[in-house]
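Quick one: structure for this chain?
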Amino acid sequence: MPQVRSIFLSDIHLGTRACQAERLLEFLREYEAENVFLIGDIVDFWSMSRSIHWSPAQNTVVQKLLRRARHGERVMLIPGNHDEALREYLDAAFGDIELAGEHVHELADGRRFLLIHGDEFDQVTRHHRWVALLGDVAYDWLVRCNTILSWFRRRLGIAGYWSLAGYAKRKVKSALQFVLDFEDSVIHSVRQRGLDGVICGHIHCAALREVGGLVYGNCGDWVDSCTAIVEQPDGRLEVIYWSQQKNSVQPPVDNTALAEAAIRVAAAKTNEEEKACVS
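Got it. Here's what it folds into:
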């Protein structure tokens, strides 16, 4: 069992059918750590307001995280926009799990990283909430369709994992631009704070690379790509792509955005055009 210093997870979306809790449990059983940072959208209250799907595996995920906290691992939850209701309880603790709006984590090699979900840098989420909700519904639909496609691929004996949402990300230019704008905003904030890098979530696009002398890391998600970032004992950061090959470390495949983002951007643009016509 690999021993790492820290595990960074985001966008698990417990409470939804899209949540791949079984894969997450495999990952958590494989990796022990001193710190577990849950960087937003761990529980999807947005989706649960429409319908709730809470499987035994999702319940086990919660129990496993609580058990880790009881046994001495530091477990910190930084709420995102889908579990923003928890922001009313910042600086409190739930069963030994710390709650914080953001956190500055010092790696073993001395570098200091901002841990933040990232919805603060998403202009659509901040100023066009109805568009964000529309995008959430559309993305959930894509993931559900992907589940059906995966079943047919297995029945036909087609090996490998293929993501419908990932395909949409690569094909929609507005989604790519969204992710680039998001990364620029995050890096700008980190630079102003005098930190060495950032680890965030929100856009469901795992990444780990240098941007202008700073390190940009994104945990990805556990509804489609099943990715996480881990800190090795010497402070090195690595992205784990659990869905592609169990217990493998691979470089980021591609700089693509969320299909959800493309829908939100397009809807926001339509909204602004309608306002312009009225005025």
